[in-house]
Description:
The chain is an alpha/beta fold. It has helices spanning about 50-55, 75, 95-105, 105-115, 115-130, 145-160, 175-190, 205-210, 225-230, 230-240, 250-255; strands at about 10-20, 20-30, 35-40, 65, 80-85, 165, 195-200, 210-215, 220-225. Helix 3 (about 95-105) crosses helix 5 (about 115-130) and helix 3 runs parallel beside helix 6. The radius of gyration is 18 Å and the shape is globular. Adenosine-5'-diphosphate binds near residues 19, 24, 42, 44 and 50. Keywords: ATP-binding, Ion transport, Nucleotide-binding, Transport, Zinc, Zinc transport.
Amino acid sequence: MTDLPAHSPLAVRGLSVTYGDKPAVQAVDATFPRAALSAIIGPNGAGKSTFLKACLGIIPRLSGEVSIFGQPFAQARGRVAYVPQRASVDWDFPTTALEVVQMGQYRRAGLWGRLSGSARAQALDCLNRVGMADFATRQIGQLSGGQQQRVFLARALAQEADLYLLDEPFAGVDAATERAIVDVLRGLRAEGKSVIAVHHDLSTVEDYFDHVFLINQRAMAEGPVARAFTPDALHATYGGRLGLAAAPQTVQAAE
Length: 255
Ligand SMILES: Nc1ncnc2c1ncn2[C@@H]1O[C@H](COP(=O)(O)OP(=O)(O)O)[C@@H](O)[C@H]1O
Ligand SMILES: [Mg+2]
């Protein structure tokens, strides 16, 4: 972790990932800020999910260094909560919403600790924070997509992590749920936690996020939203694929 900054919740240098011989992430450098909401932005297939999974050691990296609060993931794993992209989770397992949240307590509290009354109360509180307390005893498979998404966010909250990695937390949720999730994320930031979310709606980037990281296999731009989320950077990242309908105000104004 020689030159990687310990103050950053997530810093990577020279990260490359391939599937077989097909490159997915190439020589990426990135440094995310602490106590901030950061967005990872790029077109479909740009390597956003791959980037997160490689940072977490879920998939092997070809090369590069990853530092979480100045440590390798193996040493920092207790400080990290991850919510994968929804499509990648098996929704048929027979488990209630409350049990899903309590899985998040396992690492911290241990098996018996998480079965205690106070752990149950904490899990219910996490469900409450995402507006899902009324669904605690519902089977996860019987919830709508947006409700499932909120339960998995509640599980991440139950981990009481310092860094939250969220892969498309707003995909397929309704507007009210999106606002509820944004409020939760802002609450985390107010507590000094760091949030890094893959985000695909360019029109809300300036409202929701402090920092952006644009990727299309390679790192295209990075920095505070006001400085890095520019029409040029978006053009470099999306090329001709950036439809006007998806373009934020800043892009339209420049055209
Ligand atoms: N398990 C996998 N095996 C082979 N190729 C994959 C796998 N996962 C993703 N890819 C490919 O890697 C590229 C990046 O994928 P991904 O990280 O999911 O992109 P994003 O999340 O930005 O949409 C895509 O071309 C995708 O098809
Ligand atoms: Mg993805």
